Every structure is written in structure tokens, then in C-alpha cells.
Amino acid sequence: MTVMEQRGAYRPTPPPAWQPRTDPAPLLPDAEPHRVLGTEAAAQADPELLRRLYAQLVLGRRYNAQATALTKQGRLAVYPSSTGQEACEVAAALVLQERDWLFPSYRDTLAAVARGVDPVEALTLLRGDWHTGYDPHEHRVAPLCTPLATQLPHAVGLAHAARLKGDDVVALALVGDGGTSEGDFHEALNFAAVWQAPVVFLVQNNGFAISVPLAKQTAAPSLAHKAVGYGMPGRLVDGNDAVAVHEVLGDAVRHARAGGGPTLVEAVTYRIEAHTNADDATRYRGDAEVETWREHDPILLLERELTARGLLDDETKQAARDAAETLAADLRARMNQDATLDPMDLFAHVYAEPTPQLREQRALLRAELEAEGEEGR
Prior knowledge:
Layout: H1 47-72, H2 86-94, E1 101-103, H3 109-114, H4 119-127, H5 136-139, H6 151-165, E2 171-176, H7 183-195, E3 199-205, E4 208-209, E5 212-213, H8 226-230, E6 234-238, H9 242-257, E7 263-268, H10 287-294, H11 298-308, H12 314-335, H13 356-375
Parallel strand pairs: 1-2, 2-3, 3-7, 6-7
Antiparallel strand pairs: 4-5
Helix pairs in contact: 1-2, 1-11, 1-12, 2-9, 6-7
């Protein structure tokens, strides 16, 4: 006799007939990406916000150009440029409050800089001479994440833990379209929705996962539509419209902070430069395609709006350019200084308290270095 055959054994009741747990209609994204610039809504945009976004976009474009040049000079091992995607990067940083957290991917150095991270420290990981390069807790910016999408579950965990502690914190996690093909993306969105964690996911859909176009990654109507399957709202926005991205992300952050749970935002943008300096983008896309997107440049779109409203003159333009050149010159000068490396730093900041194995390895390395020093005398 089996356990289930015994008299009085527990027998689960049949599951109820299937029914939607929530109405999917409010979760669906709009059919077209949300836009502000070039529409009637642009007239209502805050002039100070427009000016601030413009200054940051110009700064970001110059930052990308200088970092790319540093790779050619051998001062950076690799640099994944965000040229063309600056509106997403800047808006993500500016929409957060000081207590909130930003979880960037490897392409999001500009977002980290816009959040307040030192430009040189933001590039340290890509230079290969230190762990993260900056203090994540000081800036509320998680370490730049090179593995695809692994930062997303971390963002959910932090946001969920903050809510359990009663902290008024929102996490904003950035990921590329290629990252949505990773299992971490599924796990993060599922946990976030089940726990109603105060987290916002921003997918920068720049068209390619290295050389793989989006059409070969997914057959979904849009990446924003994936939100419905997890039970959260999906928003679709023009990723080159800085005002629209700021507006959509602002709504999502306020929604999360008020206890409404997570939101998945897809920003439709384009990667003007190659995947990294090690990539040859001409092998998988044509110049005509790139030039078409240059006409939809985020800086150009904002310049048109500012000029039309009389908010941008030659003096303001030059001030933005001068600030960008100052940043580039400082970045160039500091990156051209050889770093002073201490091999013992390998064991720093691995754990709060070093494990016995780490202490043993540290002692062995120190002994080897001391022996080499004595031999060289």
C-alpha cells in the first residue's frame, strides 16, 4: 500500500480552472515608441531639463570619442562605445535620486560618469589595472558588468532587500538587447514581478548583439512585450529622444517607489560605433544604415528643439563644447600616466574578512616577491 492509498491520506484538490492572474491590457506597450521631441508635447518640457540634458549629451559624446582614442593609443585594453546611445545613458543617471542604485553593463561607463563616478575610475576596469575602480557604495553605482545580464538579478536582490528594510530605494538596471537572450534576464524579471520589487529594467535596443541582429534573437513584437509574460508593465520609447527617455524612466521610477513594482522599458536606439574597438562592424551592416541613424542623432534632435524655443545660442553651444573639451583633456592627461600597481592588491576587497586560503596565497606571493627582490640586489 502506498502512502497515498492509506485512509486519511492527504490528497491535493484539483487546481482551479485557468484564469488570468491580471488583466494583460494595461501591461502592453504602445504600438509605437513614445516620443516628445518633434511633437506638441515638447513645448511642455522643462527648459532647465532640456539644457541639462543637452550639456550632458555633448559631454558624453566627447567622452566616448576620447575613450575610443585611448584604446588606439594602448591606454585602454578595450572600450565599448555608447556613441549614439547617450540619451539613454544620461537619462538613466539623471532620473535617479541620490539614494537610488544604478546597475550598469560594460557599455554604460557614460551612465556611471553622469551619475558622478570619476571618468578615470569608470574606465579602470577596462584598463585592466584594478577591480572596479570606484567605490560602488559611495556613488550607488554597482560595478560595471562584463558578463551579460548578471547584474539584473543583483539589482532585483538589492531592491527587494531595501524594501524589506523599509528603505525608500529604487534600482535601475541597464542591459542591451543581447542580454535579453540570457537566462539571467528571465530570472531577474520573474523574481522582480513575483516580489513586486522596486526595480526598473532599461533595455537599450541598439540593433545588434555584437554581430547578431535583433531579428535573429527574438520573434517578439518588441522587447517591451516580454514584460507582459512576467506580469509587469512594458514601455517602448525612442531611445534617441532624451526627453522621452527621461519621462518614461521617471514614470517607472516613481511607480516603483510608490510600491507599484517593476517596469520593463525598451529604448529603441542604435550603436553608431562598432561593438568594441576589437570589432569590425562593416562585416555585418552597411554604411547606409549607419548614416540613416546619424540623422536621428540624440544631440541633433535636442539641438533642434532648443533652437526652435530660443533656448540655445552660439554661446551656450560653445560653453557645452568647452566643458566637454576640459573633461577630455583631463581624461587624456590622467590616463597617460602609468598606473602604480601593487600585486598584493589581488587579495584586497575579495571578502570582508580574508579566508584562510586567501591569507595563505597572500603569504606565498609576498614571500616570492621578497625572494625576487633579494635576488635582484
